[in-house]
Amino acid sequence: MKTKLLVIAFLILGIVGNGQKLIDEKKVPENVQRTFKKKAARATDVKWFQEGKEFTAKYSMNNLPAEISIGTDGTINMMKSAVEYKKLPTSIQKDLSENHKDKRFSEANLIVMGKKEKYYSIILHKKQGRKEPVLVYEAQYTMQGKLITVFEPVVKEEVEKTAEPTKFDKNVDKDIDKIKEKVANEKVNRKDLPSRIEEYLSANFDYEYKAKIIETRTNDKYGQYYYIVMKKQGEKKQFIHYFDLEGNLLESSEEAL
After folding, report:
1. Which of 108, 113, 167, 237 holds its CA 20 to 30 A away from the CA of 228?
2. Which residues make beta-bridge pairs with 251?
């Protein structure tokens, strides 16, 4: 018998759609840019994305990440801006310290939906064990610091029956282990990647995406290459990339999880 733990985090922070495409600022309608400049005149490091008839600007404001989604008519659909822990209402800080001692504060954002809905979204992490994934919680509070709700990860236990390995299976496993010993994957720090790769990742993946795997690998097709997997918390897909040692993209694909 083999037991698997499937952990699914229900996060409201996944507001921005997955079908966004990075676009040039010149392709952003004038009325959309006008609305953006009115709301974020001091924005820096601005990158524009488009999904259907909605345009999203992801940028920095006072060295903190922020984003805004605007319709083609110039109407603001959503705004999200990071908030430092020390600047949260004291009632929120108190609730976190008293009722979430077993979790670690990860990030806080001020969310504005349309003209009326406005609240704080707090992301908390809880460790399960050395080999288990971190559980992710989202706590939402009113502007006055009153708790609205807490979205908890749903943990389901799935029992899967596995057949006893045959002699053939055992021999195959031994061969695979030998191959792994000969061609070991070597982990690489993101800061040590060629600048060309870092430029590509920064241009195509915003701050919500993390490098799940960065390794140098070897095969007959590419020789030695960089293998990089990018994933966003809460998304049921990941993006796989292959780069040569000079940083040129060899191949990329999207994989559902």
Report:
1. 108
2. 242
